[in-house]
Write a structure and sequence with these properties.
The chain has 122 residues and is an all-alpha fold. It is built from 3 helices and no strands. It has a single domain, classed as Helix Hairpins (Orthogonal Bundle).
Length: 122
């Protein structure tokens, strides 16, 4: 199979994750922080999918398509795709809850700067 090597996918995922992590650390706007967290989750998704594709591509080409070995390889490759579905569900829940909290804080304070928020401290 000719295509993009695994290292290129992993390099892109590392770049995306590091960019997201730097954004979470540097930025103070909660919306931008959520976007950076989403970028980090997408980097993890890319890693899972690239490893799943790589494992599926490692099947011997001489193996027939419907054989047990081919089905076992496809079953192993589906694990990465299942993790991506779970991560997307967690990301959707995180956005829904996080934006709800941000909107509630904005209604109370008229300011959503992370450095000035001490509303959640008790």
């Amino acid at each position: 199979m000719v295509g993009v090597p695994l290292g290129a996918y992993l390099a892109l995922a590392v770049f995306m994750f590091c960019t997201g992590a730097a954004g979470v650390i540097i930025r103070r706007n909660p919306i931008v922080i959520f976007m950076c967290i989403e970028l980090m989750l997408n980097a993890v998704n890319l890693t899972f999918l690239s490893f799943a594709r790589y494992k599926f591509a490692m099947v011997d080409p001489s193996v027939q398509e419907g054989s047990r070995q081919a089905l076992a390889a496809a079953d192993r490759a589906i694990g990465g795709q299942m993790m991506v579905v779970f991560i997307m569900a967690v990301a959707a829940a995180e956005v829904a809850v996080g934006l709800g909290i941000i909107m509630a804080i904005y209604r109370l304070r008229d300011n959503i700067d992370v450095d000035e928020l001490n509303l959640l401290k008790s």
